[in-house]
């Protein structure tokens, strides 16, 4: 038995009237609106008997705001419920004021459940207080009255539970059938999914005091009806499943980057499970399916091979006891924080203001001393001269270079996935200076020993790479870290960059450079794998494109 779904026909004025949603008065009275709902005669008879019973209400708005909003949102497109929402809180304001009868509560909740079965899970809090399935939050002298209201409501419900149960069968079936027809496992495990859908549907009624026998009868009814209509439900499921499998196959066969072998395992198991259904497999191109499975297996093996060694390792395990050899130069941010602390004398403040102005001048010069310009062969003699002519500038520039090539700092940046060539101007500029042929500039900065060391590294390394290459950084790490620690730092860096692709945190024009960063780090870590850079780039593009779908 179901509620007349056209019961909004009595509310033509509600659809055309203009109202202020913040007005507190309800016109006409909510109880009159509730009586306009049309129910089957047996339900009406039961509800009339409940009109003299006061519904126990508690102001729970601070706790159950989300269900209130969710219920009103679900019902917002139904004009018959619009009248009940003319105040800020709609029916809830009427209920919490203590004006609602048990009949009012049931008219509203049963009407909502029938018009939109999805609202059952949101309106349960009305049943919780009306029928006493929850204890009062703030026990007081009013408990006796509360208990009397709840006892009367429960007695009424006990006498009418069969009628209520029969009325709710249709909305509960609606919920259960939607769950079955939307679940892919129904194609191969119908009985299991059927049982799960019935349990979930009945869970929505846990705030109503049905006895065990009545709940069992509803369970039997829902199970039997689902079985009777299984052919129709499965037919509704097949085509969406075919479309979904085709989409997954198209995504996977182009290569997809996932975080771990476990994720690949889930994707592989899910695809193979769905392909096991005859109704689905018969509509799928076998070659495409095989290509998708092969691709998942290939990339699963890659991730396992290259990253399994660092599964339980993080940078703090390596860097925990390591400290910087060179302190970073003071920044404008640090100066501003000290000045705003309020504990500086005027003399100290004047000194910091002067220092701040000096750093601003320095940064304006260095900002033009860009690694990108160095790559283009720009002439920096003007800026070099400005640095050398000022002792403070010269001292700071030398300090920054020593800090930039500090092995511990490099290790921290590396483990976080930093791109020393493109993202970190400090490191890139330092390495350009140290490998330059301007011996006089290097000597004036007192960086001859650092320069010689880096140049020696270059002689032994792969000179086809750009300055700022990982080869140099990798060699600098060897003075501070063991071979195993260095390898792990490279893998942590590779993993961090790899995750930036997996999580689609890069732009399309960065894909090639980002993949190269991963491959370079794996190469320097000595990790062998069978993935080419071209295949990696294709998979990265496919992964990022799937973000847009």
Blueprint (SSEs and pairs):
Elements: H1 12-16, H2 30-35, H3 41-48, H4 65-75, H5 79-82, H6 91-96, H7 102-115, H8 120-130, H9 143-182, H10 190-203, H11 212-228, H12 230-253, H13 261-275, H14 278-281, H15 286-307, H16 315-319, H17 332-339, H18 346-368, H19 371-375, H20 381-388, H21 391-404, H22 407-415, H23 425-434, H24 439-444, H25 448-460, H26 470-477, H27 483-502, H28 511-524, H29 533-545
Helix pairs in contact: 4-8, 7-8, 7-9, 9-10, 9-11, 9-12, 10-11, 12-15, 13-15, 17-18, 21-23, 22-27, 27-28, 28-29
Characterization of the model:
The chain is mainly α. It folds into two domains: 7-197, no CATH class; 332-545, no CATH class. Helices cover 65% and strands 0% of the residues. It has helices at residues 12-16, 30-35, 41-48, 65-75, 79-82, 91-96, 102-115, 120-130, 143-182, 190-203, 212-228, 230-253, 261-275, 278-281, 286-307, 315-319, 332-339, 346-368, 371-375, 381-388, 391-404, 407-415, 425-434, 439-444, 448-460, 470-477, 483-502, 511-524, 533-545. Helix 9 (143-182) packs parallel to helix 11, helix 21 crosses helix 23 and helix 28 (511-524) crosses helix 29 (533-545). The longest helix has 40 residues, at 143-182. The protein is elongated, with a radius of gyration of 36 Å. The two termini are 42 Å apart. Residues 1-28 and 463-467 have low confidence and may be disordered.
